[in-house]
Design brief:
Layout lengths: L1 E7 L3 H11 L6 E6 L9 H5 L5 E4 L9 H12 L5 E5 L6 H8 L2 H4 L2 E3 L3 E2 L3
Parallel strand pairs: 1-4, 1-5, 1-6, 2-3, 2-4
C-alpha cells in the first residue's frame, strides 16, 4: 500500500517545499504536482526526488476536467508504487471529490490516504 497525502494551500513553491520536508530519509517517494512551477531553478523537491518521480500536470480540476489526466498519471506512478505519494493540488475546492476518487475500488487496494497536508502562506 502506498501512503498518499493530498497537499493543498499556499503557492506551488511552498507546496513543493512542504513535500520535500515531509519525505523521510531513505523513503522511496513520488509526487504528482498540479500546476506549473514558477520557473526558478533549485526546487527543494528536485533535490530529494529523482526527476522520474516528479510528475507535473497542467492546472485544472483533477476530479472534473482533469480526471483522465489524473487517472493516467496515477496509473503510471503505481506501475512501480512508491512507499509515499504526494498529490499537490492548486485548488482545494474539490478536495472531498478527489479523496472519493482515490478511495474508488480501482485504487482502494493500492493507496492508503493519510491526513491532508495544509500549507500556510
Amino acid at each position: 500500500m502506498t501512503l498518499t497525502t493530498l497537499v493543498v494551500g499556499a503557492t506551488y513553491a511552498a507546496r513543493e517545499a512542504a513535500i520535500a520536508a515531509s519525505l523521510q530519509a531513505g523513503q522511496q517517494g513520488a509526487a504528482i504536482l498540479e500546476g506549473l512551477p514558477d520557473g526558478r531553478s533549485g526546487s527543494p523537491l528536485e533535490a530529494v526526488l529523482a526527476p522520474a518521480d516528479i510528475r507535473r500536470v497542467a492546472p485544472g480540476c483533477l476530479c472534473c476536467s482533469g480526471n483522465l489526466t489524473m487517472r493516467v498519471t496515477l496509473n503510471r506512478v503505481l506501475r512501480h508504487p512508491p512507499q509515499r505519494l504526494f498529490i499537490s493540488l492548486a485548488d482545494a475546492s474539490h478536495l472531498e471529490q478527489i479523496r472519493e476518487f482515490l478511495n474508488a475500488p480501482s485504487y482502494q487496494s493500492l493507496l492508503t490516504l493519510t491526513d491532508d497536508l495544509h500549507v500556510r502562506p
